[in-house]
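Whether sequence alone determines local backbone shape is best considered at the level of individual chains. When preparing material for the folding task, we compiled for one chain both its residues and its backbone structure tokens. The sequence in question and its structure tokens are set out directly beneath this paragraph.
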Amino acid sequence: MNFQGLKRIESYQFYLDVAINAAKKAAEEARVDAREEHIRNTFVKSKIIEKEKLRTMENSICGQLNNIVKKFPRVETLPVFYKELMKTMIKIDQVTKSLTSIDFVSKKIQDLTQLYQRKIRCSKTIEDMNMHRRSYYGRISSLLKEIKQDLEGLEFARKELKEFPAIKTDMPTICICGFPNVGKSTLLKKVTGSNVEIQSYAFTTKQLLTGYANLGYGKIQFIDSPGVLNREDKRNLIEHQAYLAVKYLANCCVFVLDITLSSGYDVSDQLKLLSDLKKRFEKPFIVYLSKSDLISKEKIEEFRKQKNYPVVTEVNELMKQIEMHI
């Protein structure tokens, strides 16, 4: 899912100004049509023009407001990953209330348009028609002003939503876990060919990185999970996104383990993290030894014999293990 396409939500004055300009243009077109149809009666021509202004105002404003209500994501319709992420980022109740208010104002504008269309139709003089049109504009302006804060709040929420990662929630997913700087992003690049920026220091990954690979029956999604995922009280936004991805999307996890110690983390600390994550998520875990070219075959075999779970060093081995859990 991708929230990048959400359009900017403007101020109430912007929508009012756009509608007024559209009404002026519609009035000019109505005048031209009246001349072409040889309508010479000034009163009849004015009634046509004023009614057209109101119709255009309604179409412009209600079209914009209805589009906001229709396009803005509703938490109840989102996949659970995005639903939980949305709850941590924005005030869901306020968003719902704002969308309800905007929908109400849109319906109110439609009712007002019908009311003032009748008033103009029943007017006896041009002055009466002008008075009704000014009254209509004033009431429309007041209604839009009532949702000023709702529009501002939704625009703030839209900006937050644009920062959400673009994750395919309906695709088989593998999350790559482990301490920073152990080789998670390197593995992502190996299995997917993704153009991932790799640096030789910890905490390089500042966002969820994704890539895709093909198994025999279809495409699978890989997510590089930044952070260590088990420090619930200290988790930052990106780590929280990774936590939710593992919890709600992962079919299985690949734990990247560095036994060369070049990452700066003891093997015992890494294995403790692995144990914590297995208990926390209750997902299948495959252990991948990174930087295996720096380790002797004897040491790798000795490590494998000590463990009662799959330990792999090659990408093709890893993909075979993954296929067993998809």
Observations:
- The longest helix spans residues 42-71.
- Confidence is low (pLDDT under 50) at residues 197-205.
- The chain has two domains: 12-162, 173-323.
